[in-house]
Fold this sequence. Notes:
Elements: E1 21-32, E2 40-46, E3 49-55, E4 60-63, H1 66-71, H2 74-101, E5 109-120, E6 126-134, E7 137-143, E8 148-150, H3 157-164, H4 167-191, H5 193-196, E9 203-208, E10 215-222, E11 227-233, E12 236-238, E13 242-244, E14 248-249, E15 255-261, H6 265-270, E16 273-279, E17 286-289, E18 295-297, H7 306-322, H8 326-333
Parallel strand pairs: 9-18
Antiparallel strand pairs: 1-2, 1-5, 2-3, 3-4, 5-6, 6-7, 7-8, 9-10, 10-15, 11-12, 11-16, 13-15, 14-15, 16-17
Amino acid sequence: xxxxxxxxxxxxxxxxxxxxxxxxxxxxxxxxxxxxxxxxxxxxxxxxxxxxxxxxxxxxxxxxxxxxxxxxxxxxxxxxxxxxxxxxxxxxxxxxxxxxxxxxxxxxxxxxxxxxxxxxxxxxxxxxxxxxxxxxxxxxxxxxxxxxxxxxxxxxxxxxxxxxxxxxxxxxxxxxxxxxxxxxxxxxxxxxxxxxxxxxxxxxxxxxxxxxxxxxxxxxxxxxxxxxxxxxxxxxxxxxxxxxxxxxxxxxxxxxxxxxxxxxxxxxxxxxxxxxxxxxxxxxxxxxxxxxxxxxxxxxxxxxxxxxxxxxxxxxxxxxxxxxxxxxxxxxxxxxxxxxxxxxxxxxxxxxxxxxx
Length: 357
């Protein structure tokens, strides 16, 4: 994904309002048993925008935005590449160890890690999380408040006891999440302020495959990634018969999200249903009232709907970028992140070192 600076050209409806809560996140994935994709990848994101990428085929970390490429020197890339090479070996061992604990001898298996921090630029409040998964399920997570590790599975108890006893490593993790991560997040926001501190309104469309299919409210082209897409009936939030999709990146740096409403035309013609889209940093709500004229379909037109084509292409790109199962595990783990508040500042890269489980 290229720098968001490319998408602002030609867009006239831009607001220079802060996103208020900013985030930095790294997703690391190790895969065994597949030859079609790299065994190891790392993706770094700021406010949902990918800015660095590493994999075991490239053997180096590369920039994915103009602002990171222009603001760091060669020592940054060497340090980050060296760290990833070391992490790659540890994660490869972790997959083998986990397979033994789960009595597995073959097949496709993954060890995934998500860690990062958030900073509210109005209140100064911060939060951080550090969580590992195995084969799409939670494996172990760091409780920043108690500085202990949580093992939701029996196979992770050995790791919990080992890591709880390593006081130095635990302190390093806390130091990284509460100090260095926040410090780097602020630096990156300053580097990319011309794009990261910008908001872009969404384009909202109602889609339906057939008259009996769910009605999809599709919001796309918005920035930043913080968004709520929900249905209302007669002004009241609708929860039943509603399915929410993931927030996904577009290839131009913006994002998209869909929410599906299942009901018959006879039902929605009796009541007023509307889709409401709210994007972080934009005060205006974007509303699309469900009427027959607003629904875009292709059941009377052999030509496929261009929006659906774009969605399919983006989905295929995400399979490559996210590697195996990251989005699935992220969805399962989102509520399980252990977050804590802090306002410390300092820097120490040792908190990002990978430990053997």
